[in-house]
Specification:
The protein is mostly beta strands. The protein has one domain. Helices cover 12% and strands 49% of the residues. It contains 2 helices and 9 strands, in the order ββαβββββββα. The strands form 2 sheets. Strands 1, 2, 3, 4, 5, 6 and 9 form a 7-stranded antiparallel sheet that branches. Strands 7-8 form a two-stranded antiparallel sheet.
Amino acid sequence: MITIYEEQRRGAIADTIEHSHASLETCLDVIRRMDGFTRSQVTIQCRESMIMIGGGSREFIVTVETSTAIHNLLGSPEDEEEFVELTVGVKPVNFLRSTSLALSWLSLRSSS
């Protein structure tokens, strides 16, 4: 069973929308809606594992946590700038570009 927790911000207030028994397509739709401002944090839970995604629009930071390890998903640096600013929740954070992931790299664009 997959459960998605999607954070939607209204200024300083955050609402968490829970999608129980989510499909892979629902996961992709939620990620595609991330804009880096009002929607910048998503958690996907599948059994004992968690996938936390921060950012939005075109670049993301992804962390996978299992019962035995925590892994960060690393993208390849494609830009000259060393750091990229991503909003995770309400807080903008500077990440090394080599630890951020572009949406196009994930091939999550809608097929329509």
